[in-house]
Amino acid sequence: MNASDASAYPTVRQYIAGQWRAGGQGVAAEVRNPATGQVLAEVPRASTQDLDDALAAAASAFDVWRLKSPQERAAVLMRTAVLVRERVEDMARLMTLEQGKTLAESRMEFMLSAETFEWYAQEALRSYGRVIPPRVRGTRQLVVPQPLGPVAAFTPWNFPAILPARKIAPALAAGCTMVLKPSEETPMSSLVLAQALADAGLPAGVLNVVFGVPSEVSTHLISSPLIRKVTFTGSTGVGRELARLASIGPKPCTLELGGHAPVLIFDDADLERTVATCVQGKSRNAGQVCTSPTRFMVQEGIHDAFVSRYGQALDALKVGPGLDASHQMGALANVRRVDAIEALVADAVAGGGRVVAGGQRMGGQGYFFRPTLVVDTPETAQALKIEPFGPLALVRRFSSLDQGLAMANDTPYGLAAYAFTQSAATAVTVSDELQAGGIGINTFAVSAIEAPFGGLKDSGYGQEGGPEGLHSYLHMKYVHHA
């Protein structure tokens, strides 16, 4: 990290009741630049009073915000989208400094965040109820949508802007308020969104941002009677614990948890296009994506050619600090991910797997690991059982469609799954039979603002995106007027 990088990173503050404040209980964590390992800032640790103030602010603001017309709420969200687009270059630089992804990826993430605010601004005008034909003449039977109330939201470090935006935008569009706890490793990506919302005219207390020890903050927020809904993106283990805490309420949850996405590559796939798409999909955010393609099942007829070309393409990727525009993949977000990927590769090789590309961390400073391709991956490999969450691709062979589907579905996860084929019949079959919330055919793009996104099995429940994302913050009240 050079002096300009250090000076470009602001002091981290909490945002409570429309005011910026330090934590009342010292330091929760350090923010490090993944490209260098250097400390950028310290993150405040919320005190009990900080959390209580945030809860009180969200509850008080709810009585104001829920009475705003959809048009008024939409206007704030639309202005926020404009401000994010105007500030995207400064915002993107901060994200790359704290998270490690390339500047191009950071820029795209904030642009998608702006689009998310814009889309839900428009969707706020379509939060329709309905009139039910009455059973008795002269009466009225109505279904009226109303906001649930203050929301506790928790987001991780891998997409530190779009994941908060996917919670904030629909919640605010519905008329809810929020206490958000982003990752302490990537705080500024959320705080710059909070600043944009404030500058767009969001009333004080509608959005509050706190930091601290994750277990302490989540327990305090979820156990509060002021919180009416919980939304979380992160690991399956943490999601189970938050769901347990919410069940005591009981409070509804939206949980987008881990994934371990399979990729079925059939003999009739367009090899050149498939390889190019797989390189881009695996290197995106250094593989630190819940929908990242990881378990590649390749049909026998195309297996060797795919492995050869995919390995060569991965080896050709330029990996380095994300602020350098020539690099195609940045650093992993923290040293934990480097250690984890190194251990998973060693385990796969010990069981008989063969490294075709990458396989090692990069020397020098920072948290870098070469994009890695392991073939002949043994069934016992830990990487086939747990989500690698890094630049690791595992290849196995299959012969028939039924065998490929069985291998793809042999996991407790069900967030995303993919297939590459030119056969319309095969595409229909895998779309029907793959056990996942999102299916990509010849693409890894399974998340769109206008479409629902959520998992099956250990990948969670509830959905974000699309009208479903708005509906998850609404209670449909039935009114019978006799």
Give a quick summary of the entry.
The chain contains 15 helices and 22 strands. With 482 residues, the protein is an alpha/beta fold.
CATH architecture verdict of the largest domain: 3-Layer(aba) Sandwich
In terms of DSSP E residues, the strand content is: 15-25%
Q: Tell me the Rg in angstroms.
A: 23 Å
CATH third-level topology of the largest domain? Aldehyde Dehydrogenase, Chain A, domain 1
Strand order of the largest sheet: 14-15-16-13-12-18-19
End-to-end Cα distance? 70 Å
Molecular structure report:
The chain is of the alpha/beta class and 482 residues long. The protein folds into 2 domains: 3-257 and 459-481, Aldehyde Dehydrogenase, Chain A, domain 1, CATH 3.40.605; 261-448, Aldehyde Dehydrogenase, Chain A, domain 2, CATH 3.40.309.10. It has 15 helices and 22 strands. It has helices at residues 3-8, 48-65, 70-86, 88-99, 103-123, 162-174, 187-199, 214-223, 236-247, 271-283, 300-316, 335-350, 401-408, 424-433, 466-471, and strands spanning 14-16, 19-21, 27-32, 39-44, 130-132, 140-147, 151-154, 178-181, 207-209, 229-233, 253-256, 261-265, 293-299, 354-357, 372-375, 392-398, 413-414, 416-420, 438-441, 456-457, 460-461, 474-481. α14 links the parallel β18 and β19 (438-441). α3 packs across α7 and α4 (88-99) packs across α5 (103-123). The radius of gyration is 23 Å and the shape is globular. The protein starts with a helix and ends with a strand. The model has no long low-confidence stretch (mean pLDDT 96).
